[in-house]
Amino acid sequence: xxxxxxSPGTLSLSPGERATLxxxxxxxxxxxxxxxxxxxxxxxxxxxxxxxxxxxxxxxDRFSGSGSGTDFTLxxxxxxxxxxxxxxxxxxxxxxxxxxxxxxxxxxx
Amino acid sequence: QVQxxxxxxxxxxxxxxxxxxxxxxxxxxSDYYMSWIRQAPGKxxxxxxxxxxSGSTIYYADSVKGRFTISRDNAKNSLYLQMNSLRAEDTxxxxxxxxxxxxxxxxxxxxxxxxGTMVTVSx
Lengths: 109, 123
Description:
The structure holds two protein chains of two kinds. Chain A has no helices and ten strands. By secondary structure, chain A is mainly beta. Chain A starts with a strand and ends with a strand. The model of chain A has no long low-confidence stretch (mean pLDDT 96). Chain B is 0% helix and 50% strand. In chain B, a hairpin with a 4-residue loop joins strand 7 and strand 8. The radius of gyration of chain B is 14 Å and the shape is globular. The termini of chain B are far apart. At the A-B interface, strand 4, strand 5, strand 8 and strand 9 of A face strand 5 of B.
């Protein structure tokens, strides 16, 4: 079973700063099948990145994804007030077919 | 517009059953793999089940295998989740979600989500 571990659990930053979120897999994950989501309170998650580095439709270019194998990163180049939320990584592979990381909460410092 | 709308949640006693529905609109439902994903109160996301576009391929998380059944009716643009032998730990918001396509290939992620339906299992 592939386990995704996200770090840090909570990240406190100010608007305008750069955010770097990590997602580490317990086994190698196909880059084609690594995605990132943003979730705000009371809302459904929103797809940000698929295929480790491709932005989903309508996602601003301040969001970028990178990585391969077991280490993946979501970077927000310059934080906007609306970016403060919880972020999840997700992989698709063998059993279980889909797993999510436990999430990183990005909060305003 | 592209939309998913879940229904069927509610309060049920342990051991009981519930059937969730997800109505799709604004896209060709029969082209897409679909999933159910849940989120317990204050917790993270947990994938529950996946169904292929034709319904011929189905996967379940171990936590629900043998108790939950996913199905779809492409003629009705609808996805379903039959939940039996419910437990307290099944309490969650249940989302249906679409696996996007790019050039005909699945992206194995979830680009469209419903608003969720709350399932509470309690005596």
